[in-house]
Design goal:
The protein has nine helices and seven strands. A seven-stranded mixed beta sheet has the order 3-2-1-4-5-7-6, sandwiched between helices.
């Protein structure tokens, strides 16, 4: 089990709205899903992070980056399981407030250049990369590879954008949202493999059999000049 914020904790955290954070920004952070009245939707959101933790097998000597940490819901788990935690987001205010409140010690960076090359054991990008256009994604993958150790790993989760996923979005009351997704996890897998990583393991949600709504994937960094 991972450390999970309660609905009340997250509601209190996000109740104070910085003027520059719009409802669309909150949607992109999946805040409405974590606060949804349907417990199955909340379960599904947290299940993704449970799978991330399962694939990562964190230890207290690891240095980890959460790329696109959003509201910071995974930071308590990272702080308890890892030695050093970096985090970055376009709107880090909620995550910073949570880290301060719980004394997590998260090191927030404004730019990935602040992280030393070859210093990271794992980069986590949970439901983030599907928001990024291809040309920018190529640059980020190159940066991830540079910042990761030779045996470093990239763990990614993302939506399938399948018919079942779109139907589920409507059923959850989010039918008018999601236009900020410019890709899906299946396309991302191909892009990431083209970007110097190979797919090592993956888990599917909500079950092991179709229809899949999300996939959580572990990628290993390819050795320089190698093919596997």
């Amino acid at each position: 089990m991972i450390r999970k914020l309660s609905v009340q904790e997250l509601s209190e955290l996000t109740s104070q709205d910085p003027s520059h954070i719009s409802q669309c920004n909150k949607d992109e952070m999946a805040i409405p899903s974590y606060l949804h009245k349907n417990p199955l939707i909340r379960w599904l959101m947290w299940r993704r992070y449970e799978y991330v933790a399962s694939l990562a097998q964190f230890t207290n000597d690891m240095t980890v980056l959460e790329f696109g940490c959003g509201s910071g819901v995974f930071l308590p788990e990272l702080a308890s399981a890892c030695g050093k935690v970096y985090a970055i987001d376009i709107f880090p205010e909620y995550a910073k407030a949570l880290s301060a409140k719980l004394s997590l010690g998260t090191q927030f960076v404004d730019d990935l250049s602040e992280i030393s090359a070859g210093s990271l054991d794992i980069v986590i990008a949970a439901d983030v990369l599907e928001h990024i256009k291809d040309n920018e994604l190529v640059e980020y993958l190159g940066t991830f590879s540079l910042k990761l150790k030779d045996a470093g790993r990239l763990i990614v989760s993302g939506p399938t954008e399948s018919i079942a996923y779109r139907v589920g979005r409507v059923a959850a009351g989010f039918g008018d949202k999601g236009d900020y997704h410019v890709s899906n996890i299946n396309k991302l897998i191909r892009r990431i493999e083209d970007g110097g990583f190979h797919l090592a393991r993956q888990k599917t949600l909500p079950f092991r059999f179709p229809p899949f709504l999300f996939k959580v994937c572990e990628f290993k960094k390819r050795p320089a000049g190698g093919s596997s």
